[in-house]
Amino acid sequence: MKKLQGIYNQVLKRDSNEPEFLQAVKVIFESLEPVAEKYPEFLEDGIFSRIVEPERTIMFRVPWVNDKNEVVVNRGYRVQFNSAIGPYKGGLRFHPSVNLGIIKFLGFEQTFKNSLTGLPMGGGKGGSDFDPKGKSDREVMRFCQSFMFELSKHIGENTDVPAGDIGVGGREIGYLFGMYKKMNNNFTGVLTGKGLPFGGSLARTEATGYGLCYFVEEALKDMAGKSFQGSTVVVSGAGNVAIYATEKAQQLGAKVVAMSDSSGYIYDKNGIDLAAVKKIKEEEHKRIKEYVKDHPDAVYTPGCSGIWSIPCDIALPCATQNELDENAAKTLVKNGCFAVGEGANMPSTPEAIDTFLKNHIIFTPAKASNAGGVAVSGLEMAQNSMRLSWSFEEVDKKLHDIMINIYKNASTTAKEFGYENNLVIGANIAGFMKVARAMKAQGITY
Ligand code: NDP
Ligand code: 2IT
User: Which residue ranges form the domains of the chain, and what is each CATH number?
Assistant: First the structure.
């Protein structure tokens, strides 16, 4: 870093206790050096120092009553990062590890991701340290209602439109929507990922995982003349993104041999029986190790990181941030893996990314390859505004087109700046340019 080092140092000082946020800013700033060189007006207008500071940060108390009639207090967050190109948009994460730094890294990344989709959406993210695991439906409902009681003051269909992320799926969005509607007496598309009977979009559930595979398939074709057909794939996670990435990879002719959750991973040399995984995770909300009970050839191993030691052609990390480190990256390379598609947000550490790029692995960064989820959220907003709903095939086709466009945009931009095949730099610059131009055009607003 040269031109942007000073601004990065300020972030380092101001946000020293937010390691994930610092990591995300560093990777973006390293990519944006050539932009700072080429467009001095962005530096003059303070675009870089403004873009790393959220427009607004909301933190609030979330008190609720559990099934034992005890009062529990969680902490809620909504970081409204950037509204230059549209209303704040991004998911809500409910996980005990949630803190301000994690929500800020996610909101920062979201700003560039949403820009890449080509749809008019700014960046935001929120969540809570609430842990939905082991909670009854009624506990989750009471928590969501209390969370929305405060959040509803800060969101709106033209202001900020939250959605799901880790620990927030259809059930939670339903409870959140119900409370918002009751408080505002307003039936509006204020959340995405809604149920189909009340304004949800077909293909939103599948969108992130399917979009990831559309993106990776295009990168494989364009960069190496390869495809999913006949390949061996390892997918980490067993949540929304992992399940639908597995489904699409299988449809495209791949054999997915492993999946995981935060307790451990399963390896099935015959190929993962996805219907069984869906039953365990989506219906029964149990642990992935249940899988081996009905699949005698499959093996369960406790711990998450070992999944990357399974030989594969394509790796799709779809669980959480920093789940794939330098050692794991080296093992993947050694075992002949030729492509890594990020489904989760920031799943690879910076050292792992370096390892992939140095070894000419096809590497698709999260903010480009997992943008399908928020893209279909954007399509859900469009359908809500029109009071219409499109068929599954229509939405899926639009999703496919958007993912191909994001690939082309990232790939062309990388080439234009002299970094051919480096989709990290390509996606970061392409995502940044639209937001920066919008910020510049709108002036230094107070
Ligand atoms: P889910 O809650 O549906 O699933 C998360 C999966 O990851 C679960 O298998 C979970 O295991 C595992 N996991 C969560 N935290 C950890 C951890 N600390 N260590 C190891 N494993 C963990 O979430 P999603 O599938 O929606 O999200 C997965 C990733 O994709 C996240 O990074 C999210 O930000 C990203 N993403 C999601 C989008 C969406 O539309 N949902 C869109 C774009 C990105 P366990 O069940 O044991 O907790
Ligand atoms: O990280 C993400 O892009 C998401 N969790 C989806 C956000 C959204 O608004 O659909």
Answer: 55-198 (3.40.50.10860), 207-364 (3.40.50.720)
